[in-house]
Amino acid sequence: MREVNSMQALELRKGVWSKTTCAELPRPGPGESLVRVAYAGLCGTDLELSSGYYNFSGIPGHEFVGTVCDGPRAGMRVVADINIGCGSCWFCDSGQHRHCQLRSVIGIKNRSGAFAEYVSVPDQNLLAVPEKLSDELAVYAEPVAAALEVIEQVPEPRPAEVLVIGAGRLGMITGRVLASCGVRVKMLMRNPLRAQHLQNSDIEIVSSFDKGGHSWVVDCSGSKAGFMAALDATMPQGLLVLKSTVVNAGDADLSPIMVKELQVLGSRCGPMAKALSWLEAGHMHAPKAAVFPLGEFNAALQAATDPNYFKVLFRPAAVI
Ligand SMILES: [Zn+2]
Ligand SMILES: [Zn+2]
What is the CA(112)–ligand 2 centre distance, in A? Predict the structure, then answer.
């Protein structure tokens, strides 16, 4: 039996980050497991949470890999499907639990996340990490799944070419996933420093786009400017996939959607098991990450703006 009842964690309250050494250890309910977090990725959604998205207050962190502490799965390396449905509504009954109106989402909505030494996860949401897949790569399962969702939503025959806007972490993963499925990928990149993260990929980096010249555009920018560029780039009757959260679209002019008769498709979480298979197949090598203990969250938040790093990871179990 563990004797400790507290743990280190990062908390977010009213947009302010802080680290605590005495967060209450999660108490797994029936059918849940306690997972010791090896790595947890900081992503755009976490930064949106700090600006009020979902009115979140608590421990964020939804991209993680760890090891189950107790029970029949003890010692198993795992990642998790982050959406937890109510289990009894129409969406849950039809296998669409991630659209359950009563869902909780690990580290995003009504549930503590993985910027902590431990996180509690329902067993049915756990996925075993294949033996040959390292923690350093498995931690990307959640964003890879989100990228694969685009492929799920745009079945073959799909357009031969796509323009990806937003060369951040999600954008680059989305570009790699689409390229691995045989799509010709152009990625709009304004900061050439980011190009280093796309070496050994089939992605063509472009610094401008043809207005109204792209039949398929995926917006991963998370910004109003990126969203407006995506609206501008999409060809009449083209397909615009919205992959990232733009909380403050504000007074954005949406008339191009109607004038150009665009198909606009929202895209969120995707298939985690397929993401593990995709990573295991070697489509992506462990990218250049900045790794921090929880206590160095200020430096981590700073590193998240540094284009030299592909990703910022926390290592909650590390000694501080
Ligand atoms: Zn994320
Ligand atoms: Zn439900």
Answer: 19
